[in-house]
């Protein structure tokens, strides 16, 4: 009796698939890294692309609120600091687009998805920057919240993402310190400057808490991401950590955090705090925040304005190699690495 060739092939395929899945599960279970050439489930790859792309887009769109003040910085020193900070954010975007490319999707495709409104960026960047104090508040609170979110990502299960996060986190801590230093300087200034800081903190406090996403009970992607080791802590855990970290810093600065329910809970060993306005977060995510349209229009214009640079770079990369002029000696370092 003969069997049809399809049968054993199908069985072998399934066995192989089960083996790949088992090896993936074992890597995750021992908190080891998944690398670009390793087999991974499609859903894991998809989740990573979504998360890393959203993170990369946030770094790039996040240049806008602070970039708004580069031309109006109050001193050369402040301008140099702000320029360097905004450039760091561009660098973070590039590391993250590169990490995402290891999953088989190009930066150009990701940019198209953002511009088409099919991928998101962090809701916080849809709020306006109305005074120079906002530069300090963003560094202190927004970069501070980003650090809480991102430090656990240094141990995320996908290798290229985790390694990008290590460098990014170092720079984010520096951003937080520069924001705090700016606010501290203003708090030592005039009454008007102190009022400017307080007004800025009042506007950014709640949106900063929303950066951790919806409450755990309503967070749709969290459970699977935790199981895969993509995410290491829940939204609510990270939000609590941020509040506990920030309250003593606010005291040191001499600003009030605009939450009447904020108080130390001896029993829990944590601060209790009020509920952010989740309706507002949902509205901003839907595209109805104060600056969503402006941010996207600016991003689109920047992309269009940069078309000639991409064309020139592509043409340069595609140029034919120069013909050798004489018998080649040993390759120079430059030629060898071209
Ligand atoms: Fe960043
Ligand atoms: Fe930053």
UniProtKB/TrEMBL annotation:
Q: State which Enzyme Commission number(s) the record gives.
A: 1.14.13.149
What Pfam families does the entry give? Answer: PaaA_PaaC
**Would I find Oxidoreductase among this entry's keywords?**
yes
Q: Which UniProt keywords apply?
A: Oxidoreductase
The record's Gene3D superfamilies line, in alphabetical order, gives: 1.20.1260.10
Biological process (GO) annotations held by this record are: phenylacetate catabolic process
**Gene Ontology MF terms:** phenylacetyl-CoA 1,2-epoxidase activity
Q: List all Low complexity biased stretches.
A: 317-330
GO terms under cellular component = cytosol
Kindly give the InterPro entries that the UniProt entry links to this protein. Answer: Aromatic_CoA_ox/epox, Ferritin-like, Ferritin-like_SF, PaaA, PaaA_PaaC
Q: Segment Disordered: which positions?
A: 317-338
NCBIfam families named in the record: PA_CoA_Oxy1
Q: What is this protein called?
A: 1,2-phenylacetyl-CoA epoxidase subunit A
Species: Actinomadura barringtoniae
Quick one: which gene encodes this? Answer: paaA
